[in-house]
């Protein structure tokens, strides 16, 4: 419990995904600070580990988690020793593969009794393959993914069944499930469409994929959520969170009209597909094979660090610090002259001294081979299995603003805040609490089986192991959010990975997410 009169120090850990680096999380991290640094609930600190990146992400969920664990404990110690900050609460945000890594980490921390000293806050995943990855329309991709992506590929494609780490993460008898249970607020965020890297079903944790046939549904969106306006061109961006309670099956005549419009533009993507297949695909396989072999030997050479011993020392240090601070607090209380202004200045100084530097975090990294590999996979290889859907993405991106109007999105207009993150924009909303209430009141937390949008829709042909994972994870109380981003690659834009100048569609949604975080902080004020 935080000392009376002192705000809690809350650490948010942001973990990136396959082929990525800590810089992938920079925009989300920036939004968190812009939105929450003035919160009266806690001093917000963020940490995006840099101990694994690029082709080290091939090493598998367990290995990556074991890279991060000692670095995380060291970071908490550094905050204490270098900045006089004692973390009392911790939260996790995992993006893509990073969400699985976070679930592994919280299980290992649970086994250390970490959460008895540092309280769990919230746990969030963005576009994370909780059910693994499979391409139901392209079996060749499933075969290649399990071979040419190192141990991470074996993990993601569920090689080994019950020995696979993704199954172990979901088993209620294992520490990973028990660790996740410690977090009262658990959020899973899925892309409705345009994300072929991680299917909607896997990120949302469901056996249905109603968006697989976009022409067959009439999607509706939750109203009165934040919007943003870009100052440079006055472009208005809506926050499109799917309202499953009111979305329904599309009329057949509407479906036919749309299909005719899409078929007009098939030539370009087919050319792109042909070029990728003949020129780039062999290079990609060669690079990925080299990275897989390197990962294989790295996993067998590197020793696992003794985090149990490291945590024991850190826990003793934090316990000693709390006792010392309590005595100091009692002494100061008796000698206090009620100088509240000095106390406020001390808090402000403390907030600025945690080592976070937005300008440094936002600097673009040099483009590496792994970046190129990721771009090819996300924007190219998946075109092979579904060229029609690629054309549909182009059409939807062009018609995004029109669709917002057709669906009657009602933007907030009582509060306007100006921000600069890559570009200048205004954020518009009625109130944070109203936006969160509107969001939570209209979400569906189950597997969609009782919603109109899956009426007469067959469930996906899950394997037995994937069915078990699904059932296990749906015993957990998730806040499940589905967002539609009109972008050729929603997997990258859901966290603003390439910067808001290139993908501004995620701006209002990421701020809405921080409103939800703030609500969670208020809910757990008694820590």
Automatic annotation (TrEMBL):
Biological process according to GO: lipid catabolic process
Annotated Gene Ontology cellular component terms: lipid droplet
Region span, Disordered: 325-369
GO terms for MF: monoacylglycerol lipase activity; phosphatidylcholine lysophospholipase activity
Domain DUF676: from-to ranges: 7-202
Compositionally biased residues, Acidic residues: 336-345
Transmembrane annotation, as ranges: 267-293
Alphabetized InterPro entries for the sequence: AB_hydrolase_fold (IPR029058), DUF676_lipase-like (IPR007751), Lipase-like (IPR044294)
Keyword Lipid metabolism: yes
Family affiliation: Belongs to the putative lipase ROG1 family.
PANTHER family: LIPASE ROG1-RELATED-RELATED (PTHR12482), LIPID DROPLET PHOSPHOLIPASE 1 (PTHR12482:SF24)
Protein name: Hydrolase
Organism: Pichia kluyveri
């Amino acid at each position: 419990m935080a000392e009376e009169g002192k705000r809690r120090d809350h650490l948010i850990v942001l973990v990136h995904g396959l082929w990525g680096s800590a810089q992938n999380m920079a925009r989300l991290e920036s939004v968190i600070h812009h939105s929450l640094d003035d919160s009266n609930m806690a001093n917000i600190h963020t940490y995006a580990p840099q101990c694994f990146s690029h082709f080290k992400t091939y090493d598998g969920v367990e290995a990556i988690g074991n890279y991060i664990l000692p670095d995380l404990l060291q970071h908490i110690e550094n905050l204490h020793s270098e900045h006089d900050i004692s973390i009392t609460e911790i939260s996790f945000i995992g993006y893509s593969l990073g969400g699985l890594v976070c679930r592994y980490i919280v299980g290992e921390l649970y086994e250390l009794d970490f959460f008895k000293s540092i309280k769990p806050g919230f746990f969030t995943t963005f576009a994370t393959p909780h059910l693994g990855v499979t391409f139901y329309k392209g079996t060749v991709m499933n075969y290649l993914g399990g071979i040419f992506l190192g141990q991470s590929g074996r993990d993601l494609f569920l090689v080994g069944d019950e020995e696979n780490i993704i199954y172990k993460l979901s088993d209620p008898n294992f520490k990973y499930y028990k660790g996740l249970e410690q977090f009262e607020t658990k959020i899973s965020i899925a892309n409705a469409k345009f994300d072929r890297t991680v299917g909607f079903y896997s990120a949302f944790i469901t056996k249905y994929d109603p968006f697989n046939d976009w022409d067959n549904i009439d999607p509706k969106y939750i109203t009165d959520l934040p919007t943003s306006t870009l100052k440079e061109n006055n472009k208005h961006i809506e926050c499109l969170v799917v309202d499953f309670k009111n979305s329904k099956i599309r009329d057949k005549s509407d479906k036919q009209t749309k299909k005719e419009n899409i078929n007009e533009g098939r030539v370009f993507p087919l050319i792109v597909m042909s070029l990728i297949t003949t020129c780039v695909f062999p290079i990609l396989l060669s690079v990925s094979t080299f990275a897989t072999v390197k990962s294989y030997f790295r996993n067998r050479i590197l020793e696992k660090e003794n985090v149990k011993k490291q945590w024991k020392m850190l826990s003793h240090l934090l316990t000693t610090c709390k006792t010392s601070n309590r005595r100091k607090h009692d002494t100061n209380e008796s000698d206090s002259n009620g100088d509240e202004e000095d106390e406020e200045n001390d808090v402000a100084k403390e907030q600025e001294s945690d080592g976070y530097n937005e300008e440094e975090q936002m600097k673009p990294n040099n483009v590496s081979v792994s970046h190129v590999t990721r771009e090819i996979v996300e924007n190219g290889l998946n075109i092979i299995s579904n060229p029609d859907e690629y054309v549909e993405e182009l059409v939807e991106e062009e018609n995004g603003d029109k669709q917002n109007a057709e669906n009657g999105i009602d933007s907030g207009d009582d509060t306007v805040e100006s921000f600069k993150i890559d570009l200048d924009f205004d954020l518009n909303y009625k109130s944070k609490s109203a936006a969160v209430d509107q969001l939570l009141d209209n979400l569906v937390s189950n597997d969609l089986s009782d919603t109109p949008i899956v009426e007469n829709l067959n469930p996906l042909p899950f394997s037995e192991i994937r069915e078990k994972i699904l059932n296990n994870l749906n015993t957990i109380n998730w806040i499940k959010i589905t967002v539609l981003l009109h972008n050729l690659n929603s997997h990258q834009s859901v966290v603003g990975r390439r910067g808001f100048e290139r993908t501004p569609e995620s701006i209002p949604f990421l701020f809405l997410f921080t409103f939800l975080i703030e609500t969670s902080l208020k809910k757990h004020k008694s820590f």
